[in-house]
Write a structure and sequence with these properties.
The chain is of the alpha+beta class. The protein has a single domain, classed as OB fold (Dihydrolipoamide Acetyltransferase, E2P), CATH 2.40.50. The chain is built from 5 helices and 7 strands. A 5-stranded mixed beta barrel has the order 1-2-3-6-5. The protein has a two-stranded antiparallel ribbon with strand order 4-7. A hairpin with a 6-residue loop joins strand 2 and strand 3. The longest helix has 28 residues. The protein starts with a helix and ends with a helix.
């Protein structure tokens, strides 16, 4: 079916608009799965923060990969958030996105610019657990063991409950 000359222009315009949307969203998605640098604008809890890319884009919600921090309504949850915020708020970080989690957040390794990995640092401070999956002790098992030995943060409390167990019993705080 051929379009008359009067109908071709609107169809071409719509197709060009759709194509530009696809290209723009593709560029945004590509950034989510790459390495980039930005500035921390907000800390939600001990394992979630917002980072605005250096080029001035909107801030992205980032979940620190490899750790599980106490829920904000859980014992030590606000302390964990405050420990992370004191370390990174307003600072430049390097973000290496690995994948998206089930909530659509970017799971990433984040480090202070040219410094150490924040996940490792948080676990060493006793502000988070190494994220376990089945029988895998997680990427920061050694740091967790050291924090337990030194009884730092949550590991000073023999009754401290892993966030995953807390969520199973109480649901999320939100």
């Amino acid at each position: 079916m051929a379009l008359s000359n009067g109908r071709v222009r609107p169809v071409v315009s719509v197709l060009l608009i759709l194509w530009s949307i696809v290209l723009t969203s593709g560029a945004h998605a590509a950034q989510r799965f790459t390495s980039w640098q930005g500035t921390v604008t907000y800390v939600t809890d001990g394992d979630t923060l917002w980072v605005r890319p250096l080029r001035g884009d909107v801030a992205h919600k980032i979940r620190l990969d490899g750790i599980d921090a106490p829920e904000i309504c859980q014992t030590y949850g606000k302390v964990s958030r405050d420990v992370l915020a004191a370390r990174v708020m307003g600072k430049r970080v390097d973000v290496k996105v690995r994948r998206l989690d089930t909530y659509g957040r970017s799971l990433a390794h984040v480090s202070l610019h040219n410094e150490e990995d924040l996940g490792s640092w948080l676990v060493r401070q006793g502000a988070a657990w190494s994220y376990r999956y089945r029988r895998d002790p997680g990427p920061y098992a050694q740091q967790e063991s050291q924090a337990r030995t030194q009884q730092l943060g949550v590991f000073a409390d023999a009754q401290a409950e892993r966030p995953r167990d807390f969520r199973l019993r109480h649901g999320s705080c939100h």
